[in-house]
């Protein structure tokens, strides 16, 4: 596995999904067995995996009964649920800041160090193995420190990582093939010269990789979008209700242009920017003028001003679930959509739509339709923008999914046994085969790829590509430097000034005097701009106005 990059996610996602099965009724409880109650909520992953795990564990240990309990609304506040939790184990999405919850959450550090697995990663019982959970944790082995709230020398785990997801742009492979959208004439590739061998290599500039035939640069991307528009396509579909979803993808554009170091300064405000030099608490405002933000605004402007979005994408009533349905249904219309902005959980989350469409034609079934990750093109040869220097494709890894244990559980030994069993090689593989999502542990899916959907295989290929780096990032993220833990990062400049940095990535002031207005949703605001006042250029200028040196000094000096 490649080196994974270290950032801390603290964003509660709103991913509505009903349970696959109802929780057990009280009458179903077997009084002759020891019960482990597990709370689980809306995480875009469903509960089918948990019922499969229940069956497997109960076959392994006939004296224990696993009782899943659906807690959707209750778990919407993430870790705060632990204040009143009665269940033994909680699967939840949320922050890794446990400073207020140590009276409610069990310390799992000792559990992570138990040698319970053989060389192949299979569970062989507590103390009987040669590997521990710490050995299997990618987040630990690769120095994320995201779940470690102790120190590098004395780690402390108040939670276990659950699964990770890729957030970004997904494209319809079938549409690209039928619409002849690969290898368009006019592509120049990253060398910017048409007719050379790299024209169709994609953003990585390498042949025979996952992005072959896709646009290598933003200039090539504009050719693709123009081709789609000429064919009557509505290229982009996304949630109109949840602005963070489209903005997360736009921020990935910034990350890919700037590279990790310069991007991460927007969270640490402590380091050296390639253009502005040393950045600290005295001059962080300069980062509002990073070239990557200008590149991102060009993308937003192209989508917004070109009307390159589906009918529902800017309706505030359109949820992410509705966007998924619109995207899938569009293939049967005269205005098909090529791209969906979402996390790779969307395919499992939209399974009801797949089932409905499969009743019309089996070719529309989940697993039959093919989707893949669409990488961010490089910015080379774009007028008014410095050529991008970063050559790494950064992919946004959304991994704030936690497994917590109630400190007051009365079945500690059974809980530990279950959690260790749940992270065996077989259990991890089964989770992925059921959900098509990948857990944050080292395990081998190479022999099971045929059981996954094309989208999941696309993600597997992506995360195993040598030129791809997974990065924890986002509007509410704190960068964790080498040697720092997630807990310590909360003491950073940004961590102590959440109000000031609210909408830091997007906030711009456009207009003069009494006509000046604040904006923070580039695609939507540009699309609804009737006077032509809001453009990539005016937004970039508005960044400096929204966070001037004077404004910065008001807060920090």
Automatic annotation (TrEMBL):
Keywords: Signal, Transport. Residues 1-25 form the signal peptide. It comes from the Bacteria. InterPro entries: Bact_solute-bd_prot1. PANTHER family: ABC TRANSPORTER PERIPLASMIC-BINDING PROTEIN YCJN-RELATED (PTHR43649:SF34), ARABINOSE-BINDING PROTEIN-RELATED (PTHR43649). Belongs to the bacterial solute-binding protein 1 family. This is ABC transporter substrate-binding protein.
């Amino acid at each position: 596995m490649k080196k994974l990059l270290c950032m801390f996610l603290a964003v509660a996602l709103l991913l509505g999904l009903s349970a696959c099965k109802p929780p057990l009724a009280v009458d179903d409880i077997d009084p002759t067995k020891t019960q482990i109650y597990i709370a689980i909520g809306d995480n875009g992953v469903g509960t089918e995996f948990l019922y499969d795990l229940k069956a497997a564990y109960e076959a392994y240990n006939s004296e224990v009964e696993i009782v899943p309990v659906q807690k959707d609304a209750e778990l919407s506040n993430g870790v705060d649920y632990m204040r009143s939790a009665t269940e033994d184990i909680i699967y939840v999405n949320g922050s890794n800041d446990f400073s207020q919850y140590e009276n409610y959450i069990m310390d799992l550090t000792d559990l992570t160090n138990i040698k319970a697995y053989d060389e192949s990663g299979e569970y062989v019982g507590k103390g009987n193995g040669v590997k521990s959970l710490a050995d299997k944790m990618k987040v630990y082995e690769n120095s994320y420190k995201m779940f470690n709230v102790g120190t590098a020398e004395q780690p402390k785990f108040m939670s276990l990582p659950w699964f990770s997801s890729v957030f970004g742009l997904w494209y319809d492979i079938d549409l690209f093939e039928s619409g002849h959208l690969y290898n368009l004439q006019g592509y120049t590739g990253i060398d910017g010269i048409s007719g050379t061998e790299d024209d169709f290599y994609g953003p990585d500039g390498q042949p025979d990789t996952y992005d072959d035939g896709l646009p290598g640069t933003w200039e090539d991307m504009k050719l693709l979008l123009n081709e789609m528009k000429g064919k009557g396509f509505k290229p982009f579909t996304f949630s109109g209700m949840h602005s963070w979803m489209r903005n997360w993808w736009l921020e990935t554009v910034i990350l890919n242009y700037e590279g990790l170091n310069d991007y991460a300064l927007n969270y640490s405000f402590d380091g050296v920017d390639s253009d502005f030099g040393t950045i600290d608490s005295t001059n962080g405002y300069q980062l509002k003028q990073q070239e990557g933000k200008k590149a991102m605004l060009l993308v937003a402007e192209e989508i917004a001003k070109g009307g390159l979005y589906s009918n529902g994408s800017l309706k505030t009533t359109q949820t992410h679930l509705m966007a998924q349905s619109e995207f899938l249904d569009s293939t049967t219309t005269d205005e098909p959509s090529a791209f969906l902005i979402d996390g790779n959980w969307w395919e499992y989350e939209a399974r009801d739509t797949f089932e409905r469409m499969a009743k019309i034609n089996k070719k529309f079934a989940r697993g039959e339709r093919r989707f893949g990750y669409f990488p961010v093109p490089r910015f080379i040869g774009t007028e008014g923008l410095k050529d991008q220097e970063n050559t790494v494709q950064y992919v946004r890894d959304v991994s704030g999914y936690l497994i917590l244990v109630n400190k007051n559980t009365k079945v500690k030994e059974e809980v530990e046994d279950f959690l260790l069993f749940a992270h065996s090689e077989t259990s991890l593989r089964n989770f992925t085969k059921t959900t098509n999502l990948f857990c944050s542990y080292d395990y081998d899916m190479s022999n099971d790829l045929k059981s996954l959907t094309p989208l999941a295989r696309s993600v597997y290929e992506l995360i195993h590509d040598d030129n791809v780096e997974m990065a924890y990032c986002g509007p509410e993220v704190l960068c964790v430097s080498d040697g720092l833990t997630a807990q310590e990062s909360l003491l950073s400049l940004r961590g102590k000034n959440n109000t000031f940095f609210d909408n830091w990535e997007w906030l711009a002031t456009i207009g003069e005097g009494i006509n000046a207005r604040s904006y923070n949703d580039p695609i939507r605001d540009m699309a609804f701009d009737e006077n032509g006042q809001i453009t990539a250029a005016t937004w970039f200028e508005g960044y400096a106005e929204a966070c001037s040196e004077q404004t910065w000094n008001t807060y920090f000096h």
